[in-house]
Amino acid sequence: MASALRRLGSAAARRGLSTACEDTKKSLFQLPQAGGKSSNLCSAINQALHIALESDPRSYLFGEDVSFGGVFRCTTGLADRYGKSRVFNTPLCEQGIVGFGIGLAAMGNRAIAEIQFADYIFPAFDQIVNEASKFRYRSGNQFNCGGLTIRAPYGAVGHGGHYHSQSPEAFFCHVPGIKVVIPRSPRQAKGLLLSCIRDPNPVVFFEPKWLYRQAIEEVPEEDYMLPLSEAEVIREGSDITVVGWGAQLSIMEQACAGAEKEGISCELIDLKTLIPWDKETVEASVRKTGRLLISHEAPVTGGFGAEISASIVERCFLRLEAPVARICGLDTPFPLVFEPFYMPTKNKILDAIKATVNY
């Protein structure tokens, strides 16, 4: 592996990556113009990877079955176009995939590592938590692996059961030195993934596999990036703030629409980046509405919703008119037959919205 790294890195000049995004191409940090080609989330991911590989010869994409297109076909056509020296399969060894990516990024390359399912990211946990996240810190910024992006499909898929449906984002939100990003739609996925790949810090990018084929919208074909750590107010309201990320946003939008029919005005916020998350946007909204509801697929205990709740209570205690509500997954392994009972549904969220407003 060491000799392979030397061959791959020999042609690339060593990069000095800063700890902030300011060194990234600022001109690309803008919301895309209206219009574009109708694409699903899978195609949007594929477009982003095409652009990343084409725009930077130091970019490499690798993982289990990646050169064949991957389980979800997100990498289809990439090996044919950019060659199997830049898009290649790896052994079934997540620890090795991430470890290889750390070394590749440390030599000045852009390493895009794919974990086939987020449920199988745990064998690589040591490499992510003890190596990638601390690489810059341990050297006093003399060297880093900031060019590493780890992609992983996460969350419910309708039939995955306890080994193919987990939402492990909260584990990584406890780790200083990495960023955690989750898109909600095709347009967001393309812009955020390109930002992650070009960010000067290691990033874990979770893709909501439930939306790979179901979420469709117009996606600009050009190269664009969306800023990290900036939450987006999708729907403005005055009675309650509703916060989520990823696939859960579509469920929350339905609940907010249902609440509107009953005279309740909901302000819906997509966090997008969990670490570091945009506290200011959420705080400003809660100061206006006086109420907060958080929803995510992961189990409620220790989920990232708990961190949001604690932070907002500290910042907005005197403005809150009701306890913070959390509508999340259950504290059980992800079930197969009983998935409908496990998931935070539209009706569960709508009931919680009404209960919080009427508290």
Question: How is this structure best summarized?
Answer:
With 359 residues, the chain is of the alpha/beta class. 35% of the residues lie in helices and 19% in strands.
- How many DSSP H or I helices? 13
| Run of helices and strands | HEHEHEHEHHEHEHEEEEHEEHEHEHH
Beta-strand segment tally: 14
C-alpha Rg (nearest Å):
20 Å
What is the strand content? Answer: 15-25%
Query: How much helix is in the residues?
Result: 25-40%
Q: In order across it, which strands form the biggest sheet?
A: 3-2-4-5-7-6-12
Gross morphology: globular
For the biggest sheet, the summary is: 7 strands, mixed
Instruction: Measure the end-to-end span.
Output: 60 Å
> What would CATH call the class of the largest domain?
Alpha Beta
CATH architecture of the largest domain: 3-Layer(aba) Sandwich
| CATH topological fold name of the largest domain | Rossmann fold
How many structural domains does the protein architecture include?
2
Let me know the CATH homologous superfamily of the largest domain.
Thiamin diphosphate (ThDP)-binding fold, Pyr/PP domains
Structural class, by secondary structure, is alpha/beta
Round the mean pLDDT to the nearest integer and report it. 92
Low-confidence stretches: 1-27
